[in-house]
Amino acid sequence: MLLIMKNEFSPADIFIRSLQLWWVVVFFAIAGGGLGFYIHRLFPPIYSSRIVLTTSINFAHAGVLTDEKQDQAINAAGNVLLSSSVEEAVLKQAGENGIVMDGKTFEQERFSDRLGYELTFGVNSKDPNIAETLTNIWGENALTILNDDLLHSLKADAFSKTLNDLEECFQEVSVTAPSSATCQSLGITGIQQAINQTSTQLAQEITDSHAIIPSMSFALDNKASFPDSPTYRNRNLMVLSGLLIGFIAGILFTHIPLTNKVIRHK
After folding, report:
1. Which of 22, 156, 210, 238 would you label with 11, given CA atoms 20 to 30 Å apart?
2. Are strands 47-57 and 118-125 parallel, antiparallel or unpaired?
């Protein structure tokens, strides 16, 4: 006697069988969702603290800026928040406050988002005190470095205007008699040296400004608040995944009698 397993796949049979045994499918789905919720509870609670940095642009100084230019300016500030210089300053001050953390861990636990002119950022941690402290440290250091970058941007703007004046002087001295005493006193050689020196200073200030424009300003709305309760990070996703897996498992379970047929051959 030979036993042969014959596998048949029929969507119609699966649908009908699932309807007939709907309570089995529902049971597996609920069990799967419950299992997803239980697995989520096994993970340690995560506390999240956040802070908001508001950026603004003085259009009286900046002139007309396209939406793209405005986005670039605000995104530049967001890049500074995540820069290595800010990270190093945060980790150094955190160590002074008794929080020992390496850069990789900080990058894993931090988060940031942008909504219009507001940059929201913060830290997730198993310890709510660490989450709050690190977020405030991050905010303070980010604001300090952004203002430093803004100062470099203002210096770059001043050097740019000086360079334009020097180039005009050079043209005056090269083509006609100088119209100003300043240009006349410098002479062609002096103007060329001043242009080279100013160009070098301008390039350095532009680099140090990290694309922050001189018409921007920054402010922290408030201190980061203490997270009283843990976040429900990924809980809904895990429960939903459990429901879907349980639902599929329930359908497969109801179909088992239909997929295994034994044909006997003598």
Report:
1. 238
2. antiparallel
Are 76 and 61 in contact, with CB atoms under 8 Å apart? no
d(CA 63, CA 206): 19
pLDDT at res. 22: 77
Query: Rounded distance, CA 147 to CA 208, Å?
Result: 12
Q: For the chain, how big is the Rg over CA atoms in Å?
A: 33
Residues of the chain with pLDDT under 50: 1-6, 258-266
Whole-angstrom distance, CA of residue 147 vs CA of residue 152: 9
Here the contacts of 192-200 (C-beta below 8 Å, separation 24 or greater) are: 194/166, 195/163, 195/166, 195/167, 195/170, 198/159, 198/162, 198/163, 198/166, 199/163
Task: Give the per-residue pLDDT at 25.
Answer: 79
Task: Give the pLDDT confidence score for residue 231 in this predicted structure.
Answer: 65
Tokens 């050079």 sit on residue: 170
Virtual torsion, Cα 15, 19, 23, 25, nearest 10 deg: 10
- For the chain, the structural domain boundaries read 18-43+232-265, 47-220
- Amino acid found at 111: F
For residue 211, give both structure tokens: 């694309």
82 DSSP assignment: T
Q: Which residue has the tokens 């047929």?
A: 261
pLDDT at 262: 35
pTM: 0.71
